[in-house]
Amino acid sequence: MENKNSSNVGFNSGNENLNKRRRKDDEGGEDLQDLKKSPWSDILTSLILLDEEEKREQEQWSVDSQQDKALFELNQKRRSRATNEYHHQLQDHYSELDMTDQLRTKRSRCAASAVAVSAAASEEASSDMPTHLGNSSGGSGQQRRLWVKDRSKDWWEKRNHLDFPEDEFRRDFRMSKGTFNMICEELETTVMKKNTMLRDAIPVRQRVAVCIWRLATGEPLRLVSKRFGLGISTCHKLVLEVCSAIKTVLMPKFLQWPDEQRMKQIEEEFKSVSGIPNVGGSMYTTHIPIIAPKISVSHYFNKRHTERNQKTSYSITVQGVVDPRGVFSDVCIGWPGSMPDDQVLEKSALYQRANKGLLKDVWIVGTSGHPLMDWVLVPYVQKNLTWTQHAFNEKIGEVQRVAKEAFSRLKRRWSCLQKRTEVKLQDLPVVLGACCVLHNICEMRNEEMDPEFHFELFDDEMIPENSLRSISAAQARDHLAHNLLHHGLAGYSFLQ
Question: Where is the composition biased (Polar residues) (predicted)?
Answer without folding.
Answer: 1-17
